[in-house]
Every structure is written in structure tokens, then in C-alpha cells.
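Incident log, support desk, overnight shift.

02:14 A customer reports that sequence design results differ from what the structure should imply. Their input is reproduced verbatim below. On-call engineer (initials T.W.) acknowledged and began investigating.
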């Protein structure tokens, strides 16, 4: 079974970024050139950027009427200088909501690692781009860091809400974004692992309970909290805070928790928020 720590050790030994090790691994696994893989990531990055921009300015609402316009509200408050938590953090919240709203309105997004968690990574990436003015190449390399961790998570556990609960979707996205954020900020390969572990630990046990079976409530707002958790985890790791439990073991724990969850809490809309009085009323109204 693959382990993220193996890549960390290889990166430390060779004096490389974790993304460079993952890129080399993917070139060998997929038998494709660096140029081809970079072009694919460039396309992904472009779609992510476009989905942020569309979500921040869109007046559309989802078919159910439950989602739409919240990203713009947060962004406008940020622009007025009224943010309670600072410009960058509120910007990340707005961006995460924006992409998730685009998804709910049937727009084009990048599943990262799933459609339900599509807002976390773009929010973190473009927030750091604004804060630290990183280059496109650095963003693309960081996408390989996120994707590599996603591969490990999918192999050792799951990124599917139907299989592992929302911890497997938003939790995985937060871990992937946290690892990439550390690299973008100049952190070490080991710090990417610590950040990923801290982020995922904060999401363990999170159930998947979509109201009316739609990827809207509470999914969209969980993208925003996932992005903030990723940034908090990255900040801790960059400060030298370590995770007591290694990332690979955290991933295994997440997988085991997912197996222990009842089906009612894994995307079936038969438990959690979906069966609250309001949740049931929304389902009746929508259907």
C-alpha cells in the first residue's frame, strides 16, 4: 500500500519538493511527459480560476433555490473592510462558497477530489496566490502535491461521501489543500505531511447528510469551513507544530471510521440534517 511518508522521505533525501517527487512518480506511472502532465494541470487550474470568478459575480440560484449568492455577500463584506477574521481568511471563505455554488448551479468545476468538495482547493490556492504572489508554475506544482495526497487517500481509504461520509470528501480536500498550501508558502516536505494530518484530524467523523439528497445543504458551506481548516492547519505546520499521528495513519483512521458509519450517514439523506423537521420539509417541497 502506498504511503505519503515514502514520498516525504524521498523528497528529503533528494532535496526536492514533495510535488517534484510526485510529478516524477506520475510520469513513470502514466508513461507521460512532464509537459503533458503540466498542461493537464494548467487546464484544471484555469477551470478552478474561472469557477471562482463566476461564483463571486453570479446572481444565479440552484434549481432548488437553496444555494446562490452567499459567496458574493461574503466578498462584499470583505471588500468593505468589515471582515471579523481578516482579509485573506474571509477571501478564502468567499472563494470556496463561490466554486461550490457554481457546482450547485450546474456550472463547470474541477472535482477536487469530488464535486461536493470542489471549492476547498481553489479557495486555498488563490488566497495564497493573492497573499504571496506565487507564480503559475508554483501553483501547478502545488496541484501535484494535492493530487498526490489525493491518490494516497483514495487508495488507503476513500474520497467518496457514499463510502466514507463527508470526512472522505471535505476532509480529504482540506488535507490536500493544507499540504499544498505549505509547499506554496515554502515549507518542507515533512511540514506538508503535518499540515495534511492536522487538517484531516479536524474533520474525522464528519457525516454526509445532504438535505433532500442534493449536494447543496450543508455541502456548500462545508467547503468554506474546509478551506479555513486547511489554512489553519498549514499555518500551524509552518510554525513548527507537528502532528502526533502521521498522515498515513490518520488516513487509515478516516477509512476505518467511514466503514463504521451507518448507511444513513453516508450520502443517503436518511440521517443527520436531512431528517430534521426543516430538512424533511425541504425535501417535500423540492420533490
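02:41 Re-run completed on a clean worker. Output:
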Amino acid at each position: 500500500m502506498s504511503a505519503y511518508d515514502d514520498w516525504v522521505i524521498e523528497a528529503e533525501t533528494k532535496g526536492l519538493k514533495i510535488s517534484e517527487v510526485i510529478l516524477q512518480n506520475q510520469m513513470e506511472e502514466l508513461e507521460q511527459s512532464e509537459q503533458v502532465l503540466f498542461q493537464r494541470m494548467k487546464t484544471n487550474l484555469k477551470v478552478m480560476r474561472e469557477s471562482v470568478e463566476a461564483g463571486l459575480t453570479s446572481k444565479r440560484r440552484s434549481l432548488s433555490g437553496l444555494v446562490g449568492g452567499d459567496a458574493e455577500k461574503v466578498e462584499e463584506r470583505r471588500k468593505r473592510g468589515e471582515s471579523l477574521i481578516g482579509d485573506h481568511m474571509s477571501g478564502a471563505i468567499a472563494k470556496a462558497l463561490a466554486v461550490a455554488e457554481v457546482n450547485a448551479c450546474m456550472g463547470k468545476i474541477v472535482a477536487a477530489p469530488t464535486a461536493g468538495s470542489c471549492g476547498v482547493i481553489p479557495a486555498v490556492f488563490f488566497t495564497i496566490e493573492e497573499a504571496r504572489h506565487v507564480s503559475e508554475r508554483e501553483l501547478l506544482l502545488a496541484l501535484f502535491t494535492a493530487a498526490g495526497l489525493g491518490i494516497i487517500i483514495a487508495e488507503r481509504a476513500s474520497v467518496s461521501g457514499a463510502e466514507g461520509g463527508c470526512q472522505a470528501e471535505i476532509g480529504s480536500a482540506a488535507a490536500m489543500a493544507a499540504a499544498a498550501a505549505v509547499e506554496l508558502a515554502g515549507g518542507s516536505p515533512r511540514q506538508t505531511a503535518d499540515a495534511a494530518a492536522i487538517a484531516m484530524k479536524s474533520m474525522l467523523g464528519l457525516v454526509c447528510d445532504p438535505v433532500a439528497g442534493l449536494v447543496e445543504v450543508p455541502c456548500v458551506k462545508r467547503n468554506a469551513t474546509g478551506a479555513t481548516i486547511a489554512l489553519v492547519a498549514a499555518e500551524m505546520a509552518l510554525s513548527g507544530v507537528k502532528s502526533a499521528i502521521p498522515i498515513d495513519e490518520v488516513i487509515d483512521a478516516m477509512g476505518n471510521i467511514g466503514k463504521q458509519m451507518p448507511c444513513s450517514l453516508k450520502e443517503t439523506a436518511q440521517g443527520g440534517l436531512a431528517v430534521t423537521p426543516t430538512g424533511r420539509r425541504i425535501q417535500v417541497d423540492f420533490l
